[in-house]
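ok trying this again, last paste got cut off
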Amino acid sequence: MTDDYAMVRVKLPAGEVYPHQLERLATLSEQYSIGSAHVSTRQNVQLHWVILEDVSEIMRNLAEVGLTSREACGNAVRNVMCSPLAGVCNAEEFDVTPYAIATAKFFLRNPLNQSLPRKFKFNFTCCEKHGMARMVDVGLIPQIKIINGKEQRGFKVFLGGGLGNKSFVGHQLEDWTPEEDLLYTSIATIRIFDRLGDRKNMARNRMRYLVDEMGWEKFQNLVLKERALVRMTQSAIVKLSIDQNPQKIEPHVRISGFDGKSIPDGFSRWRKGNTFAQKQAGYYSVSITLEAGDVTASQLRAIADISREFSAEGYARTGFVQDIYLRWVAESDLPRLYSKLLEIGLANPGSLTMVHPIGCSGTTSCNLALTNSHRLAKEIQRKFIELKLDEDEDLREASIKISGCPNSCGQHEIATLGFFGGGGRAGKDMYPIYQMSLGGRSDGDTMLGLTLLRIPAKRVIPATLKLIEIFKANKKQGDDFKSWIHKVVTGHADSAVKSLDDIKKILLPFTEAPSIEADKDFYADYGSDSHYHARTGKGECAA
């Protein structure tokens, strides 16, 4: 962006967003932005290309509907994230949503975190599969323990993880942290980071660097000792305000049903790749596919109406993969909902599959980006939907994540196939290129992807399709794409292709650059018809 424009990031704690808030965001995007908004991987909504003088008016408008951009940026506790499936996931031990909301409220405008060495992030996850608890400063997974014959709520707490130019997987603090220690643990961790974090070198002042440089055992001991001090000295009235009231669910009553004859074409395909059966019988969570997180003002208003009409909880949630969830949708309402989404252009299939890649904003708005990762994600999604890859069960659990630079706003290091942008050169001519990595994941077996090779931007799609072809030729019974890649990167593959070097040899032809005379388009980035040049400016990474 230029100095005359700003990006306004709106916090949505736990991703919750109500219909009247969606409508206000739609209005603000029309009045002050470009008529659309962007849903980020951190459950925020971003308005781009805002004139600086308009920012204060946007803030006033947000406050009127209970939203804020306070501490959505800066060296403070950022938006508190929570799995969009918390409360409806079959594998969860209890709903962490009230704890995420209470944590967000406690730290908002709290003097404790107004001037940290760098930004600080919480992630509450419903289970091992549906989150990224090990890839943030403080990650939490609910865990119930039986003590004296009674169920006691607590958490598995992970500290010191994070994505960026150099990423680290978090460490588990202790076997089990009781819920009454949640606040004490959070305060203790922030206080240690505040005292000891690097305030001089911006490139290395996230908490994960402190943990790495200090060593986990030393950092762990400091946190546990600090927590004991906090527990003894913290006022008894300072506590998390956790809403323990049962969630209000109001099923919608239909006068007439949706007869089978009127179900639109494509419904079965959409249902397979976009819906999740809740633990509550008869209800589904629906992931609304957004292309690289983009949603227009008219679509925001339509989603507001749809959430009122179809969600028994009456609101929507943003997720971790640039999508919007509608939960508590009755199974009988799914055909009707699909029809509504078709009308507004948001019924693309495959939202919960590899067909739905993540792409950060890239050069469309970011000063740090080197490539248009945003547009590449859209191109991949459109091509893969055309090829109906969302219907391939082998690809369902895999992921593609793309960043426009090494800073991991697109979470490329925890993707089955990850890409981050850069520039390549053939003689005097430059072209956009992506560093490709394999095998990243953020579940119970969290690991960072391993570097493979650099693929020119215009060869990413054919190289990815070739990799899928390699998998199909080498998979064994029970393998899907994600598990096969995991076997390869961990050295446990028993197929003809069994190592990264084997894959690299096969994909090497895709790295060759033709002359600019032979293929002029090769030297232009997606979304541009001009010659590529790597340009960056001063910015603040969104990761």
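PB: full thing came through this time. Residues 258 and 336 are 7 Å apart (CA to CA).
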